[in-house]
Predict the structure.
Amino acid sequence: MLATVFQDVFLSNDKNKQRLINMLRVKFQKEGCVVKQAEEDADYLIIKSALEIEKWSQYVVVVGEDIDLLVIMAASINSENIFFLKPGKGKAEYALYCAATLNIAPQIRDNILFLHAFSGCDTKSDLFREGKKKFINVLNCSKL
């Protein structure tokens, strides 16, 4: 099938998006894949599923571009068997992370979900008008 419209235009239509999801779900199920569809936040469902899979699998690799996945992993997983793979894009190489071995100060790890939301999630911080590194550097210099 040849695409006749740009992806963002196609997916901006809710009916198109739902039909695509349904088509993919059916195709994956026919191939024997377990399919879960999130009603709300898919990131949480993905990490929850990784924890379930870890019970019967030696290693689990979550692949995604959304840093929210790594943040949720850092907040909720202390396993050295679950990894996050962020694919490379352009000149940026791929990155592989393990939440259990991330070098994060304890006060940051304990509050990472709040800090991520407060600092603007996937955007620049509204408070600092800067990226995440500036926000984290300020927090590391003070006690929480």
In short: The first strand starts at residue 60 and ends at 63. DSSP finds seven helices and three strands in the chain.
